[in-house]
Design a protein that fits this description.
Two copies of one chain form a homodimer.
Chain A lengths: L1 E6 L3 H16 L3 E7 L14 E2 L10 E4 L6 H7 L6 E4 L14 E7 L16 E5 L2 H14 L3 E3 L2 H31 L8 H13 L2 H4 L9 H10 L3 H20 L1
Parallel strand pairs in A: 1-2, 1-4, 2-3, 4-5, 5-6, 7-8
Antiparallel strand pairs in A: 6-7
């Protein structure tokens, strides 16, 4: 029986708790024995006796999963009142070294954007693990496989680059949606009309290489349309982003 | 009975022909009487006798739909051997004025990214129409409604801005996928692992406002992670794009 204590009450913690509770209904290898939460967040389906906000009351477990904001990871790991236990964080960008030295360290990074009010299927979320010794890695792998069908061993440097790539395909993509929404609003067009295009863009990338899915004025070196677009954009920030991304597509198209 | 001649053999033409042929199986109000194609492209399900590559053989019809590349629209409209017919193009960025003056002008712009080898459902594609008189607009609207559930009347200026917005959510988004793919390749990570995140990013935008869906270091003003990301990016172009989009998200977060 693997005993798990989860620390945190944010989006990642919320989804991990929900998935762990589901798993333990079907597995007797695993139990979420306690959740530490400073806030008084209510976790549905989680017995109140299993929640604590006092570090002195944290139970002995096989693994402590710290799912808190990046800047709080070190401080939280300092508070764990045990020695030589496996303590992992769930961040894409924080080094494994930021965990307190008194325990064995690891990382358990689920690559997804989590929102509290939107259900997700953990089975499809890739989990990236890292540990300082093979036995811990095997334990972490076992837990990850209970949650997800795709589990990868990577090092801290790969994880940082993966996090950068995730920023490109999620944070930056969403910001482009925001800018397109602004353009629509400015010209009395409903953002809704872009949704089929957004959906098709995603569907294409599921089955095609990004360079083969590229279309539009920059990819066909259509300088006239690019000029005409730039003339029509009044917002300086939108214009700068249009120019830089267009240059990048043009440079890439030349290489092909 | 509305008689239609379609001119072109590219991606948009290909999908329009396929959809028109489907429609005329169920409607006796409409017939695709001819396709003009310079190339010897084979259109499946289209009788060879209905294809011509000679402008002198173009038949009389109620509407001529020019689905060719932007730069060829004027030249093709000059070749139509009739006067005072309705002639429309399908481009998002070309002005209605670029069509030859000897015929009545219009625009029939389906907002989608078309690839020959990927089927699409025209019913869900918004079509934006523009004409110089109300009677033509009503005819164009009728044809558009046969194809799609969402039809909008807009002017050339709105259409240009819509096309710019489409460049942001499709061309630029796909290019960000390309850059993320490059980062993955450089660090021996499979691009596949980003696909659940890409899918979730799209699913969120279907139900949330872009500003509410925004997550990541820039949106939470996490300067330490941003610095650490910039240090890990070795490619100058990737770095410039990371910096500009991050600045744009930061500026936007401050306004909220």
């Amino acid at each position: 029986m693997i005993k798990v204590v989860l620390i945190g009450s944010g989006n990642v913690a919320h989804h991990l708790i929900a998935s762990f509770l589901q798993i333990q209904n079907f597995s007797n290898e695993f139990e979420l024995i306690q959740v530490f939460s400073r806030s008084s967040t209510v976790f549905l389906q989680l017995d109140a006796s299993k929640i604590t906000s006092d570090y002195n009351l944290i139970k002995e477990a096989d693994i402590y999963i710290i799912a808190v904001s990046d800047s709080a990871i070190t401080e939280v790991s300092n508070q764990i009142p045990f020695k030589n236990k496996l303590v992992v964080h769930t961040s894409g960008s924080v080094s494994i070294d930021k965990l307190n030295n008194s325990n064995r360290k690891g990382v358990f990074y689920p690559l997804q954007t989590f929102s509290k009010n939107k259900e997700i299927n953990f089975k499809e979320i890739p989990i990236f693990i890292e540990c300082q010794n093979e036995a811990d890695l095997i334990l972490l792998e076992k837990i990850a496989h209970l949650l997800s069908d795709s589990v990868y061993r990577i090092d801290s440097s790969q994880r940082k680059s993966l996090h950068v790539a995730a920023v490109f395909v999620n944070n930056f993509v969403n910001h482009l949606y925001k800018l397109a929404n602004d353009i629509c609003t400015e010209h009395q067009l409903p953002f809704e009309v872009l949704k089929p295009l957004i959906q098709e863009t995603t569907e294409k990338i599921m089955i095609m290489q990004p360079e083969n899915a590229q279309t539009g004025p920059a990819s066909r070196n259509d300088i006239e349309t690019i000029k005409s677009h730039l003339e029509s954009i009044t917002n300086e920030n939108q214009k700068k982003i249009y120019e830089l991304l267009t240059q990048s597509i043009l440079a890439n198209a030349k290489k092909l």
